[in-house]
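Support request from a user on the community tier.

User writes: "When I paste my structure tokens into the form, the page sometimes reloads and wipes my input. The last time it worked, I copied everything first. Here is what I submitted, just in case something in the input itself triggers the reload:"
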């Protein structure tokens, strides 16, 4: 089943230019950074939201060495202060994770509040609750106060929103999901080629990458499956360890390990797959899963974190318990061999994206939130 790939950044049909109603200052990681935050921001950048709110984007983080990250933050802070003074935005929208990201964005949040500019905190980290639980008493107080003093805190799903309300009961928390651009999937898989199974993300134990290789070894021990499917692991992280594991398990003919790919190449790889697998131990609202759903790809993932907010098992994908190899083996075998079920799950996932996660829908929710904050 190959799909027509909607390449990010490609020309799109012209639409009426929206009238500008205000200005917003966005702060996040660099748009060239690996990960879901940059993907979400890039997708929203291509919607009318950017012009409607005359968005200025500032990066306070980028991939690289410790020195690169320090310089990125220093330059970002200077750019933030200049924009705050010279442009006087109507609001500041901070895209925040945990640990270092929280430290960077919370400092900017307090500066914006001191300047009298409304603050929107957008929490992207699925482990924010764990971050809070492990924090010292003083840091917990800072986290609570930062969330409470923000004009609004954006959670990606209902489960996240409940956790944030437990941390800071007086915070105003709302739910706006990640945004993705749906593609029209063409179900032209003929059965003459191998079913392409894809893992896309940080290659490591926390994402279940090595458990996946163990499960794949068990699947490939049956020669029937060796003639039916191929697995690709693509992403950053422990790439060399994954290559060694593939060699140790004798999976060279059925597994390819690739490093991190630029967004256009990763998007094309999703578009050529029939199954995306993500057996994470903890997960937020995975952009890899959303992009697979947006391409009509069947998803097999762990029943953890924000993934149940995306997938209803048996309806829009398949969920398995984390760290249970046999459950993952069974789900993958089902997805590989039952072509009708795989196509049905992919179609249902695409329809779910069009309803709830389409960037054309999500940007309007952000627009409505801004207008409400500024009333």
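"...and here is what came back when it finally went through:"
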């Amino acid at each position: 089943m190959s799909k027509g790939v909607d390449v990010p950044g490609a020309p799109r049909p012209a639409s009426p230019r929206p009238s500008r109603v205000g200005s917003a200052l966005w702060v996040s990681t660099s748009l060239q950074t690996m990960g879901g935050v940059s993907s979400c921001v890039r997708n929203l950048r291509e919607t009318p939201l950017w012009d409607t709110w005359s968005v200025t984007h500032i990066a306070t983080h980028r991939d690289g060495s410790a020195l690169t990250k320090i310089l990125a933050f220093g330059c970002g802070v200077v750019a933030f202060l200049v924009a705050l003074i010279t442009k006087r935005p109507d609001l500041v929208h901070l895209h925040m994770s945990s640990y270092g990201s929280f430290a960077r964005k919370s400092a900017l949040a307090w500066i914006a509040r001191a300047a009298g500019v409304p603050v929107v905190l957008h929490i992207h980290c699925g482990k924010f609750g764990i971050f809070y639980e492990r924090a010292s008493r003083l840091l917990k107080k800072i986290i609570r106060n930062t969330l409470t003093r923000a004009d609004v805190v954006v959670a990606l799903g209902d489960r996240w929103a409940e956790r944030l309300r437990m941390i800071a009961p007086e915070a105003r928390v709302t739910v706006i999901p990640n945004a993705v651009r749906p593609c029209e999937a063409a179900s032209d898989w003929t059965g003459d080629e191998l079913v392409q199974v894809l893992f896309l993300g940080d290659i490591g134990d926390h994402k279940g990458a090595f458990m996946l290789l163990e499960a794949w070894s068990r699947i490939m021990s049956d020669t029937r499956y060796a003639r039916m499917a191929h697995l690709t692991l693509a992403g950053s992280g422990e790439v060399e360890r994954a290559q060694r594991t593939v060699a140790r398990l004798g999976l060279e003919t059925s597994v390819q390990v690739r490093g991190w790919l630029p967004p256009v190449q990763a998007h094309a790889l999703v578009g050529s797959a029939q199954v995306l697998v993500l057996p994470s131990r903890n997960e937020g609202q995975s952009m890899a899963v959303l992009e697979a759903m947006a391409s009509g790809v069947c998803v097999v993932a762990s029943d953890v974190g924000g993934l149940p907010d995306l997938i209803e098992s048996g309806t829009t994908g398949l969920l398995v318990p984390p760290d249970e190899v046999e459950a993952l083996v069974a789900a993958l075998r089902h997805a590989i061999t039952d072509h009708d079920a795989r196509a049905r799950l992919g179609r249902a996932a695409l329809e779910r994206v069009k309803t709830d996660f389409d960037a054309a829908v999500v940007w309007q929710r952000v627009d409505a939130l801004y207008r409400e904050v500024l009333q």
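Agent notes: The reload is a front-end session timeout and is unrelated to the input. The domain at 195-356 is CATH 3.40.50.2000 (Rossmann fold). Residues 66-86 form the longest helix (21 residues). Escalated to web team.
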